[in-house]
Design brief:
36% of the residues are buried. By secondary structure, this protein is of the alpha/beta class. Helix content is 49%, strand content 14%. The protein has helices at residues 50-59, 84-94, 97-123, 131-144, 150-172, 189-211, 230-236, 240-254, 275-290, 305-322; strands spanning 2-6, 12-16, 19-23, 29-33, 37-43, 47-48, 63-66, 72-76, 262-264, 271-273, 292-293, 303-304. Strand 3 and strand 4 (29-33) form a beta hairpin.
Length: 334
């Protein structure tokens, strides 16, 4: 199956026979059979014909719109997957403090576990020493088990994240000037890649949530706020280090992306990927999403990370329908 990313300013997408056809300003064309296309992501000024829009809605192919710098605008999506009965139960349980807390604990414990694995994995064969950071993560993980409220839980999660990013500082090295997480806008190349990656990950999961009939804006861990898809925020927690952080570290370690492949915006001081870095990052992330693994406990076969999103949301649906948060099994890498 195909996921189409278009980043070239002025490109157009049309339907010709049995194909979606991307036409670039330099005269080049790319053809994707209708039957194989699963999603389209557009970065910048790209035009879709009316026939393409109709075909996407008919086939249930979502179209994600981003600025050329990676800011998310919105999506074109069919409404055929809406399940109001499932959503009503979801909304009731999102206000159930006991259910929400127990489900959230499982998500955050898995997140911290995955952060520890990433630190250990990328510290190997280097001079970096992240043992103190891992000890702090162990402390935070043990406290999560006994958290009596979501606020307490988020406090432990914040402590863990601070320790984790301190460990990442040592792994990344000085060339990229990374000294912890910052955002809105990101002030260095690593944070620029993390912000872009987290945005794409959130709306990848958002689309999967909608396709399973749940409501992206009714979460269990993060507090409700206007225009923020809290359920997508909840579900991406266990995937941040696994998908995005690992992709960023791989690109740095392989030197596919270097510190001079970024630009600083005069108006905000924010750091963004240049055109070359954007292409490298998107293609590397897509390769990661299509990579097969066997980290899910409840299946006995390998599946792609992208497929795992879909399966995890299915687990959440089972937990909601049974009103039992213990049914949900977050991903825990090894």
């Amino acid at each position: 199956m195909s996921y189409l990313y278009v980043m070239e300013h002025g490109a157009t997408i049309q339907i010709l026979g049995g194909y979606f056809v991307v036409k670039y300003k330099n005269g080049m064309e790319k053809r994707i059979p209708k039957e194989t296309l699963e999603a389209i992501s557009l970065f910048g000024n790209i035009s879709l014909s009316i026939n393409v829009i109709e075909e996407c809605l008919r086939r249930g192919i979502p179209v994600n719109y981003y600025s050329k710098r990676g800011a998310y605008y919105g999506r074109l999506e069919s409404t055929r997957h809406v399940n109001i009965f499932r959503q009503k139960k979801q909304l009731v349980l999102s206000d159930d403090d006991k259910f929400s807390l127990e489900l959230s604990k499982r998500m955050i414990q898995a997140k911290i576990h995955n952060q520890k694995v990433i630190l250990r994995r990328y510290t190997k064969n280097t001079s970096s020493n992240t043992s103190d950071c891992i000890k702090s993560l162990n402390i935070a993980e043990s406290k999560v088990k006994d958290a009596k409220s979501t606020d307490k839980l988020m406090g432990y999660e914040g402590y863990a994240s601070k320790s984790y990013f301190k460990g990442l500082e040592q792994i990344v090295g000085e060339e990229f000037h990374f000294h912890g997480r910052n955002r809105m806008p990101p002030k260095d190349p690593v944070n620029s890649m993390l912000s872009l990656g987290y945005t794409i990950l959130m709306y990848e999961i958002y689309g999967q949530i909608e396709s399973r009939g749940l409501h992206p804006y009714a979460g269990f861990l993060h507090k409700d706020r206007e225009r923020h898809p809290t359920l997508a925020s909840d579900l991406m927690e266990e995937w941040r280090a696994v998908i995005i952080d690992a992709t960023v570290l791989n690109l740095i370690r392989s030197e596919e992306i270097k510190a001079d492949m970024f630009e600083t915006l005069e108006e905000t001081g924010g750091v963004i990927l240049n055109k070359q870095a954007m292409k490298v990052f998107i293609m590397s992330l897509e390769k990661k999403l299509m990579t097969e693994m066997n980290y899910l406990k409840y299946i006995d076969y390998r599946c792609s990370f992208r497929r795992a999103f879909w399966l995890q949301i299915g687990q959440l649906i089972k937990a909601i329908e049974a009103e039992n948060p213990e049914i949900y099994e977050p991903i825990r890498i090894r």
